[in-house]
Amino acid sequence: MDRDPSPALLDPSDPTPGVGDLLRLWLSLQAAFAWAPQEIAGYLVGGESPEALANRFGVRLLSPRESARRAQVLARDQVRLLPITSPLYPARLRRLSDAPPLLAVRGQPSVLAARGVAIVGARAATVSGRQLARDLGHDLARAGLVVVSGLARGIDRAAHEGALDAGGFTVALQACGPDLTYPPEHRALADRIASSGGIVSELPLGSPPRAPHFPLRNRLISALAEAVVVVEARLRSGSLVTARHAADQGVDVLAVPGPVNAATSRGPHQLLREGAGLVEDARDVLAALGWPGDFAPPAHGNGGVEACDPLERAILDALATGPITPEALATALERRLPELAEALLELELRGEVGTDRDGQLCRLGRSQG
Asked: What predicted TM-score, i.e. pTM, was given to this entire model?
């Protein structure tokens, strides 16, 4: 059996002779088997070379021109390719019967091997749900875990942002090709994630975010993690699909309870009935993992500055000297107004920020409890 001679990481910008041919071979295999990776995963894990595998299945190689075009796009976006035969390929994914033959990674491939926790939930999440996801992401990242999620609106975004605000690492799995970002308004967030963590896709270039792609993406979210935490989810939702994948993969399933009359509580409550671990804060997640160390999350709900994330603290500091217009606040913090909107809403709900008679933002007394 031919052993795979591929380097650990394929860099499309690498001019070394032979790299272009390997890229063409792997990109051709990806194009042929992206929707049926289970057909070739076992052969590759068993040590068969991509060339021998292409011959076995009669794979038609991409034309040199098309291969060069794809390599140029990948290099432009600073995406590198991680074959399943690479020692850098995460072992937790390699164990899947349908492990992707090729991962496209924008960022740091090494972060995929670190211990991580997935945080998933509703796109149309509540304010409190987003805050809880942000707190979990922040506190788990501060404890040294990688936060894994899907870059979606709502809970996913909050979890990623919490990890980044803690100076930690986070990984986003995409349901589209590596040259795209979905949703498109999360491009800036994706850039932040890639600067220290990773944006990962198993799909070929140009693959749009279609409905069948999301369950595929979800199995990778759960497989990369040691536990999956569900924060707000309907009974029929992608988050519960991720939880089912986790259970099948032997990954711990954890859930955050919510108000009994809320549709987004039904998913977590169903998981709890089925035996999922109950999560109120990061300490519950760390206990479920048997995580070493003396991490203690900051106290929440005290209405003080200590309970805020860094952006909220920056807003309160800016308002400490007196009222200010939203535009002036955005300029002072070097942020766009839409970036401030969610943090301002959180502060208003806690009774810490309001508007004066002139419509300027001002700091109010701290809320109690």
From this structure: 0.77
